[in-house]
Amino acid sequence: MDTEADLETILLGPVLPDRACGECTACCTVLTVDTPEFKKLAGTPCVHLSARGCGIHAERPRICRTWFCAWRRVASMPDAARPDRSGLLVSLNFVQQPQNCFEGVSITVRALNGADAIEKGMAAAVLDSVCDQLVPVWFSDGSRKMLMHPENDVARLVLSGDPAPAHLHDEVAAWRERYGVFASNG
Fold first, then answer.
1. Which of its termini does the chain have fewer beta carbons within 10 Å around, N or C?
2. Backbone phi, then psi, for 164, in 5-degree steps?
3. If we measure between CA atoms, which residue out of 180, 32, 38, 42 comes closest to residue 104?
4. Nearest-CA neighbor of 105 among 93, 117, 113?
């Protein structure tokens, strides 16, 4: 757990002192929690969630005391992107058995049920704020997930190992170097 927390700070930044959860409890319903201390299925409200927030806030499990969504960490994310206001929950995601190098550690932007974040342009603003480094970014609408960063041409070249055309060479090489999956072929 400490390794994941450290990686969150490295990739997303420290928790910003001027951003607080306030009345937002999106993570208490949307996320899966699977720790020895506490377990909860995705999409299921936490048993401790009440109309006033966490019913055991002072004694909440360690994962709930130490986990923060990306809105609490990424300064370039708009203030209006707080999950309960924007309809988007952004977090660093860890997949133990990834299907490819873009799934192991990535940022996931989840559209909350009934949210109009795409129509109102908030999804684009949030994606712009997190697609600025060599960290894969996925967007999920609840039924499927789509790789948003790197772009499709770059992702295909990174995964295939094919030589990159001149205009994509540096970007593909940077992704390959970061993930150590393929030698530079182009």
1. N
2. -90, 145
3. 180
4. 93
Buried b (16+ CB within 10 A) or exposed e, 8-23: beebbeeeeeebebee
**Residues contacting 46, CB < 8 A, separation 6+:** 28, 29, 33, 40, 54
Residue type (1 letter), 154: V
Which portions of the chain are predicted below pLDDT 70?
Answer: 1-5, 180-186
Can you tell me the distance from the alpha carbon of 163 to that of 169, in angstroms, rounded to the nearest whole number? 8
Q: Which helix (H) or strand (E) holds 139?
A: strand 137-140
Asked if 167 contacts 152 with a C-beta cutoff of 8 angstroms, the reply is: no
Q: What is the CA radius of gyration of the chain?
A: 18
Looking at residue 6, what is its pLDDT? 83
pLDDT at 50: 93
Distance CA(181)–CA(29), nearest Å, equals 35
Say what the pTM is. Answer: 0.88
C-alpha to C-alpha distance for 156 and 150, rounded to whole angstroms: 9
Burial 152-167 (b: 16+ CB within 10 A, else e): eebbebbbeeeebeee
Token pair belonging to 112: 């909350």
> Residue 181's pLDDT is what?
54
